[in-house]
Amino acid sequence: MPHDFTPDPAAQPPGSAPNDGSRRTFMKQAGGILGLALAPPLISQAERLTAFSKTVAGVAAMQLKVNGTVRTIQAEPRVTLLDALRENLDLTGTKKGCDHGQCGACTVLVDGRRVNSCLTLAVMNQNKEITTIEGLGQGEELHPMQQAFLKHDGFQCGYCTPGQIMSGVACVQEGHAKTDDQAREWMSGNLCRCGAYPNIVAAVREVAQRK
Amino acid sequence: MNNFSYTQASTAKEATGILKDKPAAAYIAGGTTLLDLMKAHLQEHPQLVDINMLPFKGIEQTADGLRIGAMERMSDVGENALVLQQFSAVSESLLLAASPQLRNMASIGGNILQRTRCGYFRDAAFPCNKRVPGSGCPALTGDNHNLAILGTSEACIATAYPGDLSVALAAFDAVLTLENQKGKQRRVPVTDFYLLPGKTPHRETVLEPGELIVAVTIPTAAHTRRSTYLKVRERSSYAYALASAAVGLDVQAGTIRSARVALGGVGSKPWRSPEAEKVLTGAPATEATFRAAAAAALRGAQPRDDNRFKIELAQNTLVQALLKVAG
């Protein structure tokens, strides 16, 4: 049965101790606090982000603009965008499933388009707007697609969920979720081993119909 | 992946110049094929040259037909209004391929150059004449259920191009514009671009070392007005074709004036069928004609133990596609 797990923002003031002690809640709050503290210098850094060196060999500085914030990492050119997000930027919401572009767990948005972050290099994604699952909500407020996944129970183990949600957001944006069949076809790049497909389709369709 | 240096090229001259000095380097556009193969250690390159900045872009009407830049992405071409209007088979071949994410990434040039999905090619633990010339082909007697039945050799039975787009391009007489290291351009029909395996399955196309695909041009003709791409898979989406057919018919007063037929998933290269076209041209547009054309298309098939089913499957796929455009 679909049930609503959407947290009531009034029940928990911002910055209060994690009430379930979970790593996820902690990470989310820590990220928020860190984001606030670092915001002003990074905005000026964003303005400076223009050209980058044409040839990169060995460990080199790269600038990635993720969820609106420019951050500098030290990485080799062979580092994929997925590994840079997870290992260099500690944005572990984006999952590594197959690492070969077959499962969709690593789906992120680059300049508003959904891509498999495992099959593109971090070095190639400088000067682009990257959005991950961590950047979808507004502070404590979930994105409508996140809320719809909770409402429709669009997951079981949760491993494919960040990729499903990112793909779902793009799918609706593209106008490819007008019918259940169309949503299924255009979500086919995201596999779910638990088989939550009917609930995922329900979540994507609900957001599409609200638009 | 092995480590490599990365260079972003601004011009074709700069890109080809790097490969001239370092022939083991490789171009990267979308990266969806290249990085996949490099992660599996099936290809290793000391340097990758990013060609995304090259001006091989745009989808425009020219005197020769619709010209599509090699750096355009599959998703953009598949949903382009001009492509949809003039070549529905080309649009379908793109939108039935891969996944939305991969289609957002993969370039047209890269799609044309994608490599086989043969399990023995993709597993470095096995010999493979494509990877290591002369090492042997375990597919001949191994799991070959999704390998080719047309154009094969004793050295290789892979569907060297496993994708969809080039099947439609081969059907509709598309021509590739290539640019070599001297900056000289040449035009090669898609049907001549891919090589049959013969004794040299490691040579897959006529592309010279360092040569770039600049664009593909598809001429409009009476038979492109009604066209379709039908793809049969092991699941309903996100899979390579077991068999597919790109067809176009010009039917006037019940008679076929001109026809184009190419098959995917069954040939060692995108399989244009002049045999089927010969049966169709001048004949009544009936199911009996389509059955005869399908029989002609598969006449030379050489199935192995596990892929015998593909003869009937490809015939039925072709008949269904022809019925759809004749309808």
Explain what you see:
- Chain B: Keywords: FAD, Flavoprotein.
- Chain B: Residues 1-223 form the FAD-binding PCMH-type domain.
- Chain B: Pfam families: CO_deh_flav_C, FAD_binding_5.
- The complex is a heterodimer of chains A (211) and B (327).
- With 211 residues, chain A is α+β, with helices and mostly antiparallel strands.
- Chain A folds into three domains: 10-47, no CATH class; 59-134, Ubiquitin-like (UB roll); 138-210, [2Fe-2S]-binding domain (DNA polymerase, domain 1, Orthogonal Bundle).
- Helices cover 36% and strands 13% of the residues of chain A.
- Chain A contains six helices and six strands; from the N terminus they run H-E-E-E-H-E-E-E-H-H-H-H.
- Chain A has helices at residues 23-48, 81-88, 144-151, 161-174, 180-186, 197-210, and strands at 55-56, 60-66, 69-75, 107-110, 113-116, 129-131.
- In chain A, strand 2 (60-66) and strand 3 form a beta hairpin.
- Chain A starts with 22 loop residues before the first helix and ends with a helix.
- With 327 residues, chain B is α+β, with helices and mostly antiparallel strands.
- Among the domains of chain B are: 1-55, Uridine Diphospho-n-acetylenolpyruvylglucosamine Reductase, domain 2; 222-326, Enolase-like, domain 1, CATH 3.30.390.50.
- Helices cover 28% and strands 20% of the residues of chain B.
- Chain B contains twelve helices and twelve strands.
- In chain B, the strands form three sheets. In chain B, strands 4-5-8-6-7 form a five-stranded antiparallel beta sheet.
- Chain B is globular.
- The termini of chain B are far apart.
- The model of chain B has no long low-confidence stretch (mean pLDDT 97).
- The chains are: A alpha+beta (211), B alpha+beta (327).
- The interface between A and B is medium-sized, with 35 and 30 residues.
- Strand 1 of chain A pairs antiparallel with strand 1 of chain B, so a sheet runs across the interface.
